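Translate structure to sequence.
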């Protein structure tokens, strides 16, 4: 029969694996449920049209979300007339959008849009008060703005502030003006909505529309109409998908790591037990089945608990993702029964896979090892472990050197390769490194008076397996936490330095409370403006980020500016589409019109846009374009800009805030990954230390019989734990340092600018403190309970 102490030790050894499997399956279940959920639904302002037709898509680009190219104006008119003649169609309405925002309104990007009044027939909401706009200076606005019919209202547009009179209100977002006024303010047509006669079958109309449109458009009905949701929502969902995918993959990987390390340490501690089983006739196959059976029990129970927890946590995680900006507003999670079932099966498989190496090791235990068990670990290294450890360390060192000479694209992979190689290598070599390193670092303890210091040092030296098993998760925690956070901070700092150095300007005028700067704000400043737009051209009519610039662009960016019917492109775009200096590039603009322009110059890829055009050309084809920034190149400060949604800031401040939203999402993504990694490795720390402490009851009894007080015993254990955690943190820093220094050197070489290494010291201190507190707690508290039981006995 198994004694109570042995049963307690056995339960403690499997607790870490149970928690790791449960948490891993919970994260996988939760992530999969959110990933497989539908979008935000059909856009509210188009939900009233059962059938929608949109323009054909251009060439896709990974991670880039832009609107489809608009139809040419002539073709849009032809399609609208053809669709309007279909049986059962009451009206075919062309949808247009333009930038519109009431000053001081705090609205989301998707609500900063104006539309022609005819497009209100496509919406799922209607007129609340007043009447439709009848003349060009009338407007219908959202109820939530608090305006009443007859009141004057100033609305910011791409041209500047425009005065309107409110003719009515609607119970939905948006600004609606006359069709004639919208045609002046909006770009081309991408969507045509079909309003049907009562009782008409949408499916029949959709089939007829497909025949009429042919290859010039896509017909959408039912739930497929959510494809017309704002591209910002699609991009947000894509970012959230990357976060959830990384969470799921990281959870699965670290779960295998935790389970394998826990079972490996458990098998090492149970060699005497397995030796006794072999002595009484157990075969290696039976020993393997025993370990696999224990792993199966842990996996079945842990995965079941995790699957249930994942289903419960999915709605709450959805809310957090929406608040953080990783999912669009209105997103809802859908519960599918097969997702937790699949996650449960994955959890069981992960538990069995993690126990595989430990099962094979247990089956190789010889019967005589039950009698040859020694107090001091001997021969912890095998030839295979030596070779693998040295190879991984060499690979990590080579990647560290490579980061200093690699390009930006390869640098990230080399940094990760360096961290993973050095972490794996040092982990495998820890048993042989532990004794000399601890001996050198703890030599001063041997000279201190008293027995506590000597006990701490000798216990760490003689129990190489236990010490190494405790150091490993601390090393991995510190290495990856420091590496990920510091790499992100260093890269963002380098990007800010690069952007600030690329511009020669006294200051920058940037939007404040608006998505961009209007012509009125640009004209008031009189500097070098970047009028942002999108053009379509080249192979597959790919979407290209473009800017309309003035001649002052040459002074601010030290680059040739486009003039007349010319265009300037970056080297990557020129290579991708075969554009060379002096050749012709064919581009389609936001109004659907196509122009043939001569390539005046090819610039390097450090420029903020892919294509540069004359500002007048962009404004002529994109009435709703807004400027991202205006660089002031004169010494005279910019005049006050009341009511224009703009403010002047130093160039360095603009460079740091230009990608502030993207940097915020990247940093949140980083913290999520660090938190997951840290949480898992802390589980491993707690599991390893708990198992080790549970197996040291005999040592505690010997110390008490030798005259040590309970306080001295606990102090010895706590001091040993602190030394082990400190050693693991030092090795973790040693793993991260080469990759980080190599990355900083590589960025300096590539940018030609001083790039300082930015180490996330608060996160490093927090991770080390967390490991220290957790390890100390799971060491002292069980030991204290064991000492109390000894006293009662």
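Result:
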């Amino acid at each position: 029969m198994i004694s109570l102490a042995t049963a307690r030790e056995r339960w403690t050894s499997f607790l870490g694996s149970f928690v790791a499997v449960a948490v891993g399956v919970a994260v996988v279940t939760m992530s999969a449920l959110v990933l497989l959920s539908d979008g935000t639904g059909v856009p509210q302002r188009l939900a009233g049209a059962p059938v929608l037709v949109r323009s054909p898509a251009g060439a896709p680009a990974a991670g880039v979300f832009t609107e489809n190219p608009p139809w040419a104006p002539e073709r849009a008119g032809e399609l609208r007339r053809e669709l309007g003649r279909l049986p059962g169609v009451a009206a075919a309405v062309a949808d247009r959008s333009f930038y519109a925002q009431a000053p001081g309104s705090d609205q989301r990007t998707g609500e900063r849009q104006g539309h022609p009044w005819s497009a209100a027939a496509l919406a799922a909401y209607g007129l609340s008060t007043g009447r439709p706009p009848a003349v060009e200076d009338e407007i219908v606005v959202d109820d939530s703005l608090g305006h009443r019919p007859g009141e004057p209202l100033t609305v910011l547009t791409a041209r500047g502030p425009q005065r309107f009179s409110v003719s009515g209100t609607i119970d939905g977002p948006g600004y609606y003006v006359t069709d004639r006024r919208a045609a002046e303010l909006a770009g081309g047509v991408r969507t045509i909505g079909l309003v049907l006669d009562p009782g008409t079958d949408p499916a029949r109309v959709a089939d007829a529309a497909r025949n009429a449109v042919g290859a010039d458009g896509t017909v959408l009905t039912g739930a497929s109409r959510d494809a017309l949701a704002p591209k910002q929502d699609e991009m947000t969902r894509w970012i959230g998908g990357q976060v959830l995918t990384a969470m799921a993959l990281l959870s699965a990987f670290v779960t295998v790591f935790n389970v394998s390390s826990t079972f490996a340490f458990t098998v090492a501690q149970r060699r005497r037990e397995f030796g006794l089983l072999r002595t009484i006739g157990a075969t290696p196959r039976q020993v393997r089945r025993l370990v696999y059976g224990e792993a199966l029990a842990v996996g079945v129970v842990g995965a079941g608990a995790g699957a249930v927890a994942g289903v419960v946590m999915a709605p709450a995680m959805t809310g957090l993702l929406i608040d953080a900006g990783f999912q669009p507003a209105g997103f809802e999670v859908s519960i599918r029964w097969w997702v937790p079932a699949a996650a449960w099966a994955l959890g069981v498989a992960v538990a069995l896979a993690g126990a595989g190496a430990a099962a094979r090791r247990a089956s190789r235990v010889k019967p005589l090892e039950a009698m040859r068990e020694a107090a001091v670990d001997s021969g912890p290294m095998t030839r295979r472990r030596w070779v693998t450890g040295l190879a991984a360390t060499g690979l990590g060192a080579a990647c560290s050197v490579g980061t200093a000479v690699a390009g930006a694209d390869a640098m990230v992979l080399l940094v990760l390769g360096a961290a993973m190689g050095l972490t794996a290598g040092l982990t495998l070599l820890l048993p042989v490194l532990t004794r000399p390193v601890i001996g050198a670092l703890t030599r001063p303890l041997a000279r201190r008076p008293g027995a506590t210091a000597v006990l701490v040092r000798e216990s760490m030296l003689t129990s190489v397996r236990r010490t190494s098993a405790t150091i490993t998760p601390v090393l991995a925690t510190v290495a990856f936490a420091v590496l990920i956070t510091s790499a992100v901070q260093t890269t963002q700092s380098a990007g800010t330095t690069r952007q600030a150095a690329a511009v020669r300007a006294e200051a920058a005028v940037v939007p404040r409370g608006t998505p961009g700067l209007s012509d009125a704000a640009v004209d008031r400043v009189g500097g070098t403006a970047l009028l942002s737009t999108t053009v379509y051209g080249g192979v597959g009519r790919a979407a290209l980020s473009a800017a309309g610039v003035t001649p002052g662009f040459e002074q601010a960016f030290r680059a040739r500016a486009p003039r007349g019917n010319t265009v300037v492109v970056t080297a990557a775009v020129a290579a991708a589409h075969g554009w060379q200096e002096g050749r012709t590039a064919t581009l389609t603009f936001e109004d659907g019109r196509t122009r043939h322009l001569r390539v005046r110059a090819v610039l390097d890829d450090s420029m903020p846009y892919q294509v540069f055009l004359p500002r007048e050309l962009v404004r002529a084809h994109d009435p709703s374009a807004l400027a991202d920034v205006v660089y002031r190149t004169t010494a005279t400060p910019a005049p006050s800009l009341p009511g224009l949604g703009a403010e002047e800031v130093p160039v360095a401040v603009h460079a740091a805030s230009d990608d502030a939203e993207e940097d915020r999402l990247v940093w949140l993504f980083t913290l999520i990954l660090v938190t997951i990694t840290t949480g898992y490795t802390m589980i491993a720390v707690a599991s390893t230390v708990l198992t080790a402490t549970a197996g040291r009851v005999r040592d505690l009894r010997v110390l008490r019989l030798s005259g040590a007080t309970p306080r001295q015993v606990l102090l010895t254990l706590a001091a040993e734990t602190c030394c082990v955690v400190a050693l693991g943190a030092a090795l973790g820093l040693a793993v991260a340092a080469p990759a980080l220094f190599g990355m900083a050197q590589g960025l300096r070489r590539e940018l030609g600018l001083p790039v300082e290494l930015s180490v996330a010291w608060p996160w490093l201190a927090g991770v080390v403190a967390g490991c220290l507190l957790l390890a100390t707690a799971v060491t002292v508290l069980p030991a204290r309970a064991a000492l109390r039981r000894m006293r009662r006995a």
